[in-house]
Amino acid sequence: MRSLLLAVAWPVATAVPSVTLSNGVEMPMVAAGSWQYNSSTAYSSITSALKAGFTMIDTALDYHNQDGVGKAIAESGIPREKIFVETKVPGCGLDPSTMNVFNCYQATKRDLETDLKLLNLSYVDLVIVHFPPISSMITRSCNSWSGGCQMVRAQWKAMNEFYAEGKARAIGVSNYCPSCYDCLESSNPVMTRLPMVNQVQLHLGMGTDPEGFVSYHKAKGIQLQAYSVLGNSMTHHASSEILNGNLTTSIGKAHNKSSVQVALKWVISQGIPAVTKSSSSEHLKEDLDLWSWNLTTQDKQLMDAHRSPKGSPSFACNAAEAVLV
């Protein structure tokens, strides 16, 4: 249950602002997610999200629901170019055979095409590598001796080819660490196109520059996108502190907004797009009502300084390697 319910009628949906990626593509500031949804639930949720006014959808190959997401898009009646579709391919190593660099490259090419097939689309707006190679997650660094660097480069080669073929308007990564970018920048020949997006965990309680990820990515020209914006407990449920805590509920009460809206507002106020989700039509509408009001300076100061619940931008990175700008 959300901590507060709006007692007023829903306002007319405000156009969702966007950020400009390094290649000039405009990406909406909020996306309707589908993690943990099966195909049927994803179809229902995304259908509701599009009706509510969402213009961006987030899914992934390993969510096993892209057929439902694609069906919702196809039946929406909304022109394809008006919906920003983001999907993902897994990092190499989940299948042991893809620990081989050549197989990693081939599997990535296959998975990219599978995304299009399941979504029933000729292109996606953004596709990202869901996480670094498994060997890198074990060492918590994309180092060469684990084979991580070689696989990072192999996957990025496949991603660049997919992009060059016009099958994705933008390409990126998720849960990537500074050492993963080092692999790309030190490759031979040099990979001059860095990821356009890195989707990482970011929520209230982590501060405005957790482990230096925000300042680092700004310096690189890579747009961060936030997942788990309501916290990420071991049970994969939203944090009760964010949903019902004194800080979010008191600020929400002052603005006649829910605690969820307050938490989302804090993320996007930093210029970082957010992925949110709900199976409730009313909550989806609420998640879009983020631009008709503003946090006060005091609200922002209190939220910036808050340090609970804790979190790390990536489960795949060693915080010690995040020596940033």
TrEMBL record:
Signal peptide: 1-15
The keyword Membrane appears for this protein: no
Coiled coil segments of this chain: none
Keywords: NADP, Oxidoreductase, Signal
InterPro entries, sorted: AKR, Aldo/ket_reductase_CS, NAD(P)_OxRdtase_dom_sf, NADP_OxRdtase_dom
UniProt-listed SUPFAM superfamilies: NAD(P)-linked oxidoreductase (SSF51430)
Boundaries of every NADP-dependent oxidoreductase domain copy: 33-306
Annotated family: Belongs to the aldo/keto reductase family.
Protein name: NADP-dependent oxidoreductase domain-containing protein
